[in-house]
Amino acid sequence: MYILKYADYEGTYHGFNLKPGFYYGQDTETRCYIATSGWECNENVYIYFLKDGKWEAEWVDILEKFQISNVPEIDTKDKMDFYEWLKEDQGITWEYFDNNYGHVVSDEMMMKYDRYLYDGLPEFVILRMDKMNLVDCLNFEANMEI
User: Fold this and answer.
1) pTM (2 decimals)?
2) 17-52 residues labelled b (16+ CB within 10 A) or e (exposed)
3) What is the pLDDT of residues 23-64, one digit of tens each?
4) Which of 5, 15, 56, 87 has the most neighbouring CB atoms within 10 Å?
5) pLDDT of residue 141
6) Closest Cα partner for 67 from 37, 23, 106?
7) Which of 35, 30, 29, 31 is nearest to 14 (CA)?
């Protein structure tokens, strides 16, 4: 499992330069310190692992087990719903979308909508938004060796 905390400040984490919006923590299996900017590609997130005093990066599947804390609260109540966003932001009617977009493109469009809805958070974080709660936050501190 990857235990991560959202960085809401600039700083360093075991030599890794953090910026606001980065994530840092630990791989519970290897006990390696980890950090990421949240850069994603093809449903993977680019994570740096501190191994033998050097930061080495690997692509990690966004569906792996992540426990994330300190993510800013996102207020979505004033955001457009998906259909309104499709029309206003993408210039696509629901009917056109439904009749002409295949499964892969539909998934990509939903991920794009999620980014809008959750103020640009990476998909690996958005996927866990409903699961983040007080227990996760308490477990973060208990499970991580900083």
Assistant:
1) 0.79
2) ebeeebbbbbbeeeebbbbbbbebeeebbebbbbee
3) 999 999 999 999 999 999 989 999 999 999 999 999 999 999
4) 5
5) 47
6) 23
7) 35
Question: Residue holding tokens 């919006």?
Answer: 21
pLDDT per position as a tens digit, 127-140:
887 655 434 444 44
DSSP at 71: P
CB contact at 8 A, 20 and 85: no
Cβ atoms of residues 143 and 137 within 8 Å:
no
Judged by DSSP in three states, 4 sits in strand
Tokens found for residue 106:
């539909």
Six-digit token string for 69:
């804390």
Provide the token pair at 58: 């690997």
Cα 83 to Cα 36, 56, 117, distances in angstroms? 32, 41, 13
Q: 61 has which bridge partners?
A: 44
Amino acid sitting at position 21: G
> Residues 6 or more apart from 134 whose CB is under 8 A from it?
none
